[in-house]
Amino acid sequence: MKSIELFAGIGGLGMGCELAGFSPLAVIEWNKWACETLRENRERCYPLVRDWSLHEGDVRDFDWNSLTETVDLVSGGPPCQPFSLGGKHRAHADRRDMFPAAVEFVRRLRPRAFVFENVKGLTRSSFANYFQYILLQLEFPEATIRAGETWEDHLRRLQADKSSGQRRKAGLIYNVVPTLVNAADHGVPQRRERVFIVGFRADLGVEWSFPRPTHSLDALLRDQWVTGDYWRRHGLEPLPLPERFAERVRSLGQSLLPPDTRPWRTVRDALSGLPDPTATAAGGIPDHRFQDGARAYPGHTGSPLDLPAKTLKAGDHGVPGGENMMVREDGTVRYFTARESARLQTFPDGFKLHGTWTEAMRQIGNAVPVILARRVAASVAERLIENEARRLSRLEATKRDSA
Known about the structure:
Blueprint: E1 2-6, H1 12-19, E2 23-29, H2 32-45, E3 53-56, E4 73-76, H3 99-109, E5 113-119, H4 128-139, H5 151-164, E6 174-182, E7 190-191, E8 193-201, E9 215-216, H6 217-226, H7 229-233, H8 246-254, E10 262-263, H9 267-271, E11 309-310, E12 325-327, E13 333-335, H10 338-344, H11 357-365, H12 370-402
Parallel strand pairs: 1-2, 1-4, 2-3, 4-5, 7-11, 9-10
Antiparallel strand pairs: 5-8, 6-8, 12-13
């Protein structure tokens, strides 16, 4: 199955799609350092397909004539600064809003499916109308905005068409499913909440819902404070039970049935095997350099070792926020190295980053965790394969009947 990756960053979403069976025809990214990282890792971390074309530049300048094959999937993470909780919250008034460009790719390429990822801030009540506008544009990509029409007028027109059912009678239509997801619930060692917008072309008749969580806080608390398996795995004596979890742990201990999920993965789990970056042994590990200057302050206290990390952030103007740090066992804090951050985003250890530590952290903070991307893309691929199998079966049955 063929795909196009928009706003690729350093390829977390694209790598997950590739591992799920999609072959990228083109990968588009404008940031020069991210493009250098993509080129560096093309053969190392995209093992199945190594001849994809990297387009360094604005997606709005893409050469449509360069595509000669049918596209099954369009995926990408449109720049999220317009909706970020740490940004300026300008949404449609922000020139960095790339959702119109994403809709244009869907309209032109008519893929069987699309997967877009964005920040939780997109779901804020102040953005409710614009979020609805994004979803309706993706549902009806051919109902483009008219000359002189404001986005609010366009939204009202789309809402009226949807209510009347007129748009459902003809044209290009997608069944769109938006879902707010915590990456920790899917095996990522990071509490990272993001919105996934997944759509299937309506004529395919595909029914899809977001994959069920595989990991949970309850399973982690049981592993730590009921069975103690977590501490034994790490060769440690159990630490004191945090008071905020005491009642929850008591209930878990009294339950006859364990959670039907695996434990959330913690910072300690993710960084297992990596030496302290200040140790001599860390010198030979790429991107594992100590960065001085970390400090805790109200609202930015770092990530405890025995929970998933707090959300890694790209930061305003590329400067990582104070949360991109860990709390050591003695209570002091230090910044995560780029290698540690890559692990928290589930990139393989062979993945190399270009640019300074600040630039590398910006790239990682903007990325989609690889294993979460793979899980979503695999569920999409499964439905597309099932759909194609049904289509071929019907075609074969028609041939037999007409013989």
